[in-house]
Amino acid sequence: MVTLLVKKLKAAEDFLACTLKLKDVLEKEDSKTTAALLEKRAELIAVIEAMDGRLARGLTSFPGERNPEDMRVLEKISEDISDRLRRASVVNDECVALAARKVEGLMKELATLSSEERGLKGYVRRGEQNPRFLDIQT
């Protein structure tokens, strides 16, 4: 049980580190690295969820009282895991906010480009020759 919790703690620490890197990469707008980090985080989430299932089965297979010292160790590791995942959640919320601001900026940029294109098209009539400018004195 302790070994499995230690592995879960390592996965939670890796997830936190990956999330912190993701925040940095989002700030630098490096889309290639962002995609790789999102994949890595998905893998770590799968690992953590798998360990949760194994831990749940382990708890039900060993009912009854446990040694108080063992319980303190298990509680400490569990607290450490919770701490890492809470910190990762806070950083993840910051990543979501960064990404949302980036999307909003891109939407505004696209809207500006679209309106500029419509404006340019208004000056050109299809099928007509270019206007000729003559210098006529009155």
What's the short version?
The chain is mainly α and 138 residues long. It is built from three helices and no strands.
List descriptors:
138 residues; mainly alpha; Methane Monooxygenase Hydroxylase, Chain G, domain 1; 3 helices; rod-shaped
Structure description:
The chain is mostly helical and 138 residues long. It has a single domain (2-117), classed as Up-down Bundle (Methane Monooxygenase Hydroxylase, Chain G, domain 1), CATH 1.20.58. It contains three helices and no strands. The chain is rod-shaped, with a radius of gyration of 28 Å.
How many structural domains does the protein architecture include?
Answer: 1
How large, in whole angstroms, is the Cα Rg?
A: 28 Å
* Broad shape: rod-shaped
Percentage of residues in helical conformation: over 70%
pLDDT average, as an integer?
84
**Which second-level CATH architecture applies?**
Up-down Bundle
N→C terminal distance? 99 Å
Q: DSSP strand (E) fraction?
A: under 5%
Biggest beta sheet attributes: none
What's the CATH class label?
Mainly Alpha
The low-pLDDT segments are none
The DSSP helix count reads 3
Number of strands: 0
SSE layout and pairings?
Layout: H1 2-28, H2 31-61, H3 68-123
Helix pairs in contact: 1-2, 1-3
